[in-house]
Amino acid sequence: MPEYRITVNDKTYSVNIGRIEDDSVEVTLENRSFTVGVEISGNKSQKTPRIDRGRAVPDASSTSDKTTPPGGIAGKGDINAPLPGAILKILVAVGDQVTEGQTVAVMEAMKMENEIEAPVNGKVSKIAVKEGDTILENALIMSIG
Questions:
Q1: What does residue 60 show for φ and ψ, rounded to 5 degrees?
Q2: pLDDT, tens only, 22-46
Q3: Tens digit of pLDDT for each residue in 124-145?
Q4: CA of 67: how far to CAs of 11, 44, 60, 128, 145, in Å?
Q5: Contact 123, 77 (CB under 8 A)
Q6: What residue numbers bound the domain in which 10 lies?
Q7: Could you tell me if residue 85 is inside a domain?
Q8: What is the CATH number of the domain that holds 79?
């Protein structure tokens, strides 16, 4: 039994707490044993305590610069990942001229290869990922300016 030292009205006692069963616990106080009733506040019918683990969902604003928060505003020439997946190929480089509809990258998502196309005509101004990166949905892949 775990032993605790408690102080009541400036007097210290040695208390051993035994096993808690349903609504009672065995307590030893100064070498005298007692069975003590335990009442769980709030819900008296609850016999076994439940652990609330909650779900720790990360705040989208705290993600790395490889992601855009869901619903985030993308620029006109920004290319964001349509699904979570892995970047297989980057087919252009910064400074390359591209045309609308041109395949600029290939990513694998849901066991399928997806061609990522340029949404506008222009010059590639930024590539935010590299081949082999695993990215989330809405992650910025590249920008065309």
A1: -60, -25
A2: 778 787 877 788 787 777 665 555 5
A3: 999 999 999 999 988 999 999 8
A4: 60, 47, 9, 9, 19
A5: no
A6: 3-37
A7: yes
A8: 2.40.50.100
